[in-house]
Amino acid sequence: MTALLPYLPILIILSSLLPGLIIFSLKETQIKLRTWLNMLGVTVKLIFVWLMWRAVKAGQEVTFSLPFLPGADLVLHGDALSLLFVILSSILWLATTIYAIGYLEGSPLRSRFFGYFSLCVSATVGLALSGNLVTFLLFYELLTLATFPLVVHRGTAQSLAAAKRYLGYTLGGGVLLMFGVALLHMLTQSPDFTPGGYLLPLVASDRALLQLAFVLLIAGLGVKAALLPLHGWLPQAMVAPAPVSALLHAVAVVKAGAFGIIRVVYDVFGVQSIQQLNVATPLMLLAALTILYGSWRALAQQDIKKRLAYSTISQVSYVTLGVAMLGPLAAVGALVHLVHQGVMKITLFFCAGNYAETLGIHDIRELNGVGKRMPLTSLAFTVGALGMIGIPPTAGFISKWYLGLGAAEVDQGWLIGVFVLSGLLNAAYFLPVVYRIWFTQQRLPWPHPQQLSKKLETHWMLLSPPLFTMLLVLLMGLFASTDISPLSWSELIVEREFSYD
Amino acid sequence: MLSLYVYFTLATLLIGFGAYGVWRGPELLRRILALNIMGAGIFLLMVTLAYRPVLQGEPADSVLHALVLTGLVVAVSATAFALALLGRILQKGKA
Amino acid sequence: MSLALGLVIIPLLAALLMLLWPRLARGLQLAAALLCTILATMLLQLVQQEGSQQLFIGGWNPLLAIRWQADSVTALLLLLSAVLHLLVSGYALAVQQRDKLAAAFWPLSSLLLASLQALWLSRDLFNLYVCLELLGMVAVALVTLSGDKAMRPALHYLLFSLFASLCYLLGVALLYGAYGALDLPLLQGQLQANSLTAAALVLITLGLMLKAAWWPLHLWLPAAHAAAPAPVSALLSALVVKGPLFILVLVWTTLAPAAFLNVAAYAFLVCALGALLLAGVAALRTPYSKTLVAYSTVAQLGYAMLALALMLSFNLPVFTAALWLFVMAHALAKAACFLSIGEMQQTLGVKKVAQLKGASQTMPLAMFAFAVAGGSLIGLPPSGGFLAKWVMLLGLWQAQQYFLLLVLLVATLVSAAYIFRVVVLAFDRAEPTAPDFSPQLLPQWLALLPALAVWAMAFFSMPLLAILQQELS
Predict the structure, then answer these.
(1) Could you tell me the pLDDT band of residue C473, with boundaries at 50, 70 and 90?
(2) Which residues cross the membrane (chain C) (predicted)?
(3) Most A CBs within 10 Å: which of C356, C380, C462, as the mutation test of the A interface?
(4) B81–C133 C-beta distance less than 8 A
(5) A350 lies in a domain?
(6) Structural domain contains residue A473
(7) CB within 8 Å: B78 and C154
(8) Is C162–B35 a contact, with Cβ atoms under 8 angstroms apart?
(9) Domain tally for chain B?
(10) Residue A135: what pLDDT?
């Protein structure tokens, strides 16, 4: 068992990469083999992740490295923080794979889709496990390349335009990130991520360059994290198939950006350097502005997926904001929101996909009375929406609670005002939808109904993933105090790795 | 000594004419001929350079002679190739 | 050093034998390419162990003899050209019947390899001229293999090439007249900063810039490279334009007097900026797919010029490394680009970029090869193009050249734009262009090979940089 330990990070990546590569070569008709390969990859990955979780929990650290650039090896490193993201993406990958198999049943070019789907998850996991900036950069760019074919998958004029825009933003961000990483590499090589950062000795001598590097890195990561004004790609990328939007929003892309910001702030610069460089406040303001802007724009959207997209812009910035506050409680809030928002948002996207696939509903006004026709999906949607608003006992309440506590702890009381305002806006754009679903009568016939199942309201592969994630949302909220909850894991990370006294 | 300058001037003039012809064109044949004139100018320059030691009573520089010979071979074959290509183009134009 | 001699003589001999026995041409081609690859590998090992090797042809003394030298950069370039030649030969073999590739391709491409290998080895100004001229003529002959439509671009290419060689020759004659030597190591440090030297260097540089298609003297390249058959375009873009570049670097780093370096650096810098930005924009706008790739060559050469300019103005070894890394990464990536685009053009029977619509459904492998190679041209990690750009970035940050960093940023985005212009179209599902015949797998895989090789390059960055740095110490 211990002999396997150093190879765990690479095995976790390979467990989705290899099936992905094999899937590319399969014929369209080999559905069984493809499904089997997908499920095998997921299962194997979960086993490896579990092994790693046990090791890290016991205080071991897992490192795998390959020679790459001079002064910057290709380092894969399993610590508590990377594991948080790895577990999130592996579990959500499981749900999304099942969902995607059901969603795409009978549509063309599925081998290509599932091939890139696996690559995308491999890149996300690699990004989570990256042990230094250069490795992070590598997976960050690979993620862009792997997600692009998914965004463009439908091949319509609309999705081509969205994909171009997506590429423009993300490649631009990638280049900025590369420049920033190169600047830091020139100053001090690229050592492994270190709790407390490794740049403190340089703050006195290279102040301006470090500030520039911070701006470049945050701008590069901010594109994926959809920070204002770099968010333009996200609402348009909605044309992708539902499982793709679900994965992009919940884990793969936006979270890659947010996770990168956490790494940069805590493990590259470190709280002390950030304070001395005076760069946290602008980031905080920007994040706060994005939160309000996203919620405000979401109000005006009538397309379900678009409304969810603007909501994502707003919600991801909670993570950024929590990081920028530079306090331990806020950090716990940021980390736990990374997980909670992911699970809640993926639930909402699964449901939106179900409505579209089963009844052809895309517009919010068409949702009237859908609660009677699809009660289970609507239940999941409602739980997800309540979570987003932050109503107890859902998971969303926990993360917002900690973020609020964090704001009070660092004496930024006005941020609580931001949270309250944004919470009200969240309620304003989610509650009317919930109201329509349950408490209004169906007026028009469904736009494009399909009989996907004899007994259930829709295909079981479409129904089970949102129910599973809905359950997670509730469990994460109800059992937040147990020691396997994301909350206690986040506390462990902050305690162990963020070096607050 | 004087003759040396005459040759140098002649070589410069040839190179200048040749370069002008190549630049001006526009006919392809004219450009090919101009290239040859330019080449002749350069070879003349090299031969004149080779002649310099003779004024001091030493034998002429044989390295340059060898270079000019090589250069001539290259120039002749290149011209032949260019003319062949031109022939193909003109033939196609007629057909 | 007999290894080096073998590297030139084997392809030369093979070319002659092919002319005598055309039936054996294919076998001979592959055998020669394989042998050259092995020899080049051995030479690289030898140079790494024992340092650079010298040979005076015919055993004359250095004043008369032609000097050949195999240092680490030369050894790398020899290996690169042998490997690419092998790959392209394989591709040509796979498609020769379908594409009706003329029989003359085999001897001509062998001859191309011979003249290129001689060029890498040569350290004598006049011998370099002969190699250059031979290279140019063989290249033009290869372009004409496309048939009648290629005659005009080929003749233009030839005229430009001849004019450029004459400029170079005139410069060399002036230098010989003033300093009485042609051997580069003998001339090193001898040149004085006077107007005669300046004139000679300007002529040499102009000639070489024309041959290397440096912006703004690149006008002949897109037409010629786009007109040639796919395997030929791959060889031309990947290798042939690098020959004059190599000489240019030799001249400016060993011969030129220090007083001229700054001016030259500025001139190269302006050309580099023009190439990176304007040629990139041209690639964005051209309607034809092969012309797009050809313009991308002009743009990518801008990185090499930039590295050269920086080499001359800052005494930082990283820029030398960046230059040769760019050359290698570009050679591999561009070969893959031309082969994959050529493959798609043949199979789909189209020429325009817009007609590649839906190619990721009809020819996924070729499109993938193009995208992967494109990733290296953009500089995405972990490709060879990324490695080169990374090394250059480190140098630029170190030298605090913020304006150039900005230029590099814009240039990277422009290259991304023209690569993805094709890739995005390939995902269009509405009415994809139907193939004329069912796509063949082998040539597509052969197009993918150099693309994969360039992505593997980054993982060999340590040995590569070690080899390149051996040169500097």
Answers:
(1) very low
(2) 73-94, 101-120, 126-145, 157-179, 199-221, 233-253, 259-280, 292-312, 318-341, 362-382, 402-424, 445-468
(3) C380
(4) no
(5) yes
(6) yes
(7) no
(8) yes
(9) 1
(10) 93
CA distance A262 to A136: 12
Which DSSP string corresponds to C172-198?
HHHHHHHH---BHHHHTTT--SSHHHH
- Specify if A496 maps to a domain: yes
**Count of domains forming chain A:** 1
Can you give the CATH number for the domain in which B12 is found?
A: 1.10.287.3510
Residue C111's contacts (CB-CB under 8 Å, 6 or more residues apart) are C11, C12, C15, C134, C138
Mean pLDDT of chain C: 89
- Tell if the CB–CB gap between A141 and C358 is shorter than 8 Å: no
Whether A298 is in a domain gets the answer: yes
Range of the domain at B53: 2-94
Q: Which two tokens stand for residue C173?
A: 């004659």
Using CB atoms, which residue from C133, C158, C165 is nearest to B85? C158
- CB of C428 within 8 Å of a chain A CB? The answer is yes
Set of chain B residues whose Cβ sits within 8 Å of the Cβ of C176: 46, 49, 63-64, 67
DSSP at C430: S
Contacts with B19 from chain C: Cβ below 8 Å: 163
**Domain containing residue A396:** 285-501
Minimal CA separation from B56 to chain C, in Å: 15
Alpha helix stretches (DSSP H) within C251-316: 258-274, 280-285, 289-313
Q: How would you class A219 by CB atoms within 10 Å of its CB: exposed for 0-12, middle for 13-18, buried for 19 or more? A: middle
Q: Give me the residue spans of the domains in chain C.
A: 257-473
Would an 8 Å CB–CB cutoff place B45 in contact with chain C?
yes
Q: Is the distance from CB of A42 to CB of A89 less than 8 angstroms? A: no
Question: What is the 8-class DSSP label of residue A191?
Answer: P
Position C172 pLDDT exceeds 50:
yes
Which pLDDT value is given to residue A243? 86
Q: Which of C361, C203, C352, C356 is nearest to C288 (CA)?
A: C352
Helix, strand or coil, per DSSP, at residue A195? coil
